[in-house]
Amino acid sequence: MKFKGYAYINTIGCQMNVYDSEKLALILNYNGYRQTRDMDQADIVICNTCSIRHKAEEKAFSFLGRFARIKKKKPDIIIVMAGCVAQQEGKKAFKRVHHLDIVLGTQAFSRFGKHIDAVKAGKNRIVDIEDSEKLYEIMPAVLESDAAESTILEHGTLNFKENKISRFVTIMQGCENFCTYCVVPYVRGKERSRNPESIIKEISLLAKSGVKEINLLGQNVNSYGQLEGQISFAELLVQVSKIRGIQRIRFATSHPKDLSMDLIHAIRDLDKVCNHLHLPVQSGSDKILKKMNRGYSRQTYIKRIFDLKKQCPEIGVSTDIIVGFPSETRDDFSETMDLLREIKFDSIFAFAYSNRSSAPASKFSHQVDEKEKLDRLNKLLELQEHYTKQKNLELIGKTLEILVEGQSVRKHNGFKKNHKNMEQMTGRSACNKIVHFPSESAKIGDLIKIQIKNAYPHSLWGYPAGALN
Ligand code: SAH
Ligand code: SF4
Ligand code: F3S
């Protein structure tokens, strides 16, 4: 394809958006546009947006808003709002961002090339928030083109992130759980799983390009393939495990209501599947869980974690929590604090409830005061800080296998004299801890055994096992 210009992509939001932006870059490449890191050089500017919380949405509007002035100086520049806010707002997006050229919904990416051509031919204000039967299945056409395949092999899907050994692969789209606070079912549509062949093909290509770790993505990976009558998620893990070159497999997110024994066994039995589970609980109060429409009780959640730890004693467990959901009292919040004490998560992501007008909870009574939400959030984070550190301290003296990701950004002074002048490297353990260590020979992508010597709240450090102590 003839070179037509440069595209700049700004990605906001979850891992799925990071993946989508990589695909967008491939589609652009297929259509003659090369990705640039330099915004000033761009002929097309795309913001891949997120609407999960108010703040994320505002970030998108403020980024795109900046181009009003630039568009005056450079009228041919094409400005695009893509992703979840685009899907949610449709043509309303033009009210706040007059100078937008294309509003590209979450399922419209495969039609992007056509829309760019239309803008160039003089059409303005294009909105495409239509569904698409085909998920990433448009990708084979793109993937099978020589240009794309060589781009993947060379750059690991055109992503500018330095770390080329770990990649996201979305295996399913959409969600039909309808948690009452959440926009995802409205902006990502029905749950649809990709066919396993296309997933395996993509991961095999990534493996050939040197990728060592795959992170399989979906809003509820445990229900992978169920609606389509395809292989189950546990079976998909078996297949991905067989791909040569892939050394580690991670996945997110699992929904507690669907956490099956099959999956627990897959984590236990498949060597490449990492010993880590992200299992969002959202609240420790049964009353709130019910109002959230989560489909499990506090007790069921605790039991599932108990079953999991029984089968996989070394597993790292993380979770998501929302504080200040409508009608959450201080007692409800105390139950969430108690759950943290009871489970002792390795880490948590905690959020103050954000009112989303498309989600049902926005109409619920007894919305919690913003200040109170922040207060609860801080209390929760403070409590968790203690457990995160405690969990890390428990690892001192143990030997963990680390996938080397690169050089440490920060140097630690604590290393022994004869290690001080060595390169300080960083990587992750299977249980998802960041580990720093000195090494003369470790290269990015190596799996290396590190004996843990010390623990910080958010990282560990140690020495290659067998090295001088
Ligand atoms: N599918 C995943 C979550 C996707 S969204 C799951 O079911 O767990 C990621 C996280 O954002 C959620 O787990 C939730 O904790 C948080 N979140 C979603 N909607 C929110 C809202 N309206 N306000 C605050 N946090 C929210
Ligand atoms: Fe949102 Fe619930 Fe679906 Fe997760 S399971 S994406 S929180 S609706
Ligand atoms: Fe945000 Fe859309 Fe992901 S709303 S969290 S980018 S699915």
Provide an overview of this structure.
This protein has a six-stranded parallel β-sheet, sandwiched between helices. A five-stranded mixed β-barrel has the order 15-16-17-19-18. The chain has a three-stranded parallel β-sheet with strand order 7-10-11. α11 (233-241) runs parallel beside α12 (261-269) and α15 (330-343) runs parallel beside α16 (370-393). The chain has helices at 15-30, 54-65, 67-73, 84-89, 93-96, 112-120, 139-144, 146-155, 184-188, 196-208, 233-241, 261-269, 286-292, 298-311, 330-343, 370-393, 417-420; strands at 5-11, 33-35, 44-49, 78-83, 102-104, 126-128, 166-170, 172-173, 192-193, 213-217, 248-252, 276-278, 316-323, 347-352, 399-407, 423-429, 434-439, 447-455, 460-464. Residues 152-162 have low confidence and may be disordered. With 469 residues, it is α/β, with parallel strands linked by helices. β13, α15 and β14 (347-352) form a beta-alpha-beta unit. Bound molecules: S-adenosyl-L-homocysteine, iron/sulfur cluster and FE3-S4 cluster.
Outline of the structure:
The chain has 469 residues and is an alpha/beta fold.
Q: What is the secondary structure topology, with strand pairs?
A:
Layout: E1 5-11, H1 15-30, E2 33-35, E3 44-49, H2 54-65, H3 67-73, E4 78-83, H4 84-89, H5 93-96, E5 102-104, H6 112-120, E6 126-128, H7 139-144, H8 146-155, E7 166-170, E8 172-173, H9 184-188, E9 192-193, H10 196-208, E10 213-217, H11 233-241, E11 248-252, H12 261-269, E12 276-278, H13 286-292, H14 298-311, E13 316-323, H15 330-343, E14 347-352, H16 370-393, E15 399-407, H17 417-420, E16 423-429, E17 434-439, E18 447-455, E19 460-464
Parallel strand pairs: 1-2, 1-3, 3-4, 4-5, 5-6, 7-10, 10-11, 12-13, 13-14, 17-19
Antiparallel strand pairs: 8-9, 15-16, 15-18, 16-17, 18-19
The chain binds S-adenosyl-L-homocysteine, iron/sulfur cluster (SF4) and FE3-S4 cluster.
